[in-house]
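Support request, please re-run this one:
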Amino acid sequence: MSALLIVGVPRSGTTWIGRTLGATDEAAYVNEPDGFRDPLAFRTMLALGENPILEPGADSPDAERLWAGALAGGRTAGTARDRVARLLFERTPLDDLRAARARGRATGRAGLAAKLAVARVPEPGATRVVVKSVQSALAVEWIVDRFRPQVLLVERNPFNVLASWAELGYVRNPRETAAIAAFARRRWDLEAPDADAPHLALQAFLFGVLSSALRESAAHHSDWVRTRHEDLCVDTVPRFRALAAELGLLWGERAEHFVTDSDQDGTPYRTQRRTEDQPDRWRERLDAEQVGIIRETLARFPQVAPPKISGAPSPDRDRTTSAGGPPVPES
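Re-run finished. Output below.
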């Protein structure tokens, strides 16, 4: 059994892409085994944060168990212990889970769920496992070094990503923000925005850190495949079919039906979208001041910086950065 790991930042289109590729023939799809809906991921986040920072060779037994199970097929274990852990976790209020992650310690029902959490197990009959993660930007090289999955990096116009982050209120864990700011200081000698800066500036800063880390990792691995959400929104079926072939996946009716069925109006946490509307949605969601904040913040990140940092965005043109990454509006 071989594994494909799909990585990107949150709201970059990874779920749509992951579920499409996970619907290819003989594939098993594992959605965010390290995300916010899994007891073992919760336990790992308590110790390592929501975006674990792991360098190749680092020792982390919980992360080891989590990724070994996910990349082997990712089916829930189904044992009595697993069922109890998941039931306790599902019945814990979201605010309690957020508070536990913010302090790095869980008590009560959440604490017991974390203690009982078990790893996932192989999926019978699958010859290919497709795993999607948006929490592994700072640990992906550790995962690759340990488990050797094939990697697909998904990128998206940062204005689209950050419009979604702003609307959904992302970046609200002070412990996580501090850890990522410390990472940026060590890696690039960059400081986080001042405490009185707009929240969007902090969101853009974290986007810059996570995106830059992913691009640096991709630069170290010439075998990684990279794709852009915007590109897949045009001639969607032919481009997905070509991407699947490049990744060694078997395109079939199930995958094609998923793509066509998902091309409809949806909600923020559903994969239904009108694909033709996606590339320029940011223009309806961000005002000029917000665009300016994002430009100014991302200008500090050479890997993801817009080509210009002044002026208003063009109403009718996008351009790709010289690094070949997501398109950013031209001034």
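The CA atoms of residues 289 and 312 lie 9 Å apart. The radius of gyration is 19 Å.
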